[in-house]
Design brief:
mainly alpha, single chain, 108 residues
Length: 108
């Protein structure tokens, strides 16, 4: 009996190419891509359901200033003349140019 026989690969259908672990390196290289895809799809689902609010990149600081000005006028913190003066500084004509509304979030 040959002493190297247990360490030699058998020939025929029982080689590594035919084993169940043959494709493991192929799938292992795509595992990070699948995880990234899963994270992106989960984020899109949560954003669609309103549970993941994303910042509005189109919002300008002037919109916040106009909103604060309108809230202060509505509370009675300033007179109409002061309101119109400050609105003109912002190049805003109240009544003609509506305020942009804030994005709504569904909170449970």
């Amino acid at each position: 009996m040959d002493p190297r026989a247990p360490f030699q690969r058998p020939h025929g259908w029982h080689g590594m190419e035919d084993g169940s672990f043959f494709m493991l390196p192929f799938f292992a290289s795509f595992l990070p891509l699948l995880l990234i895809l899963l994270l992106v799809l989960t984020g899109m689902y949560l954003w669609h359901k309103g549970k993941l609010p994303l910042p509005d990149l189109r919002r300008r600081p002037e919109d916040d200033a106009k909103r604060i000005l309108a809230e202060r006028f509505a509370r009675g913190d300033m007179s109409a003349d002061e309101f119109m003066e400050r609105a003109s500084i912002l190049n805003w004509t109240p009544g003609l140019e509506p305020l942009r509304s804030r994005p709504r979030t569904n909170r449970l």
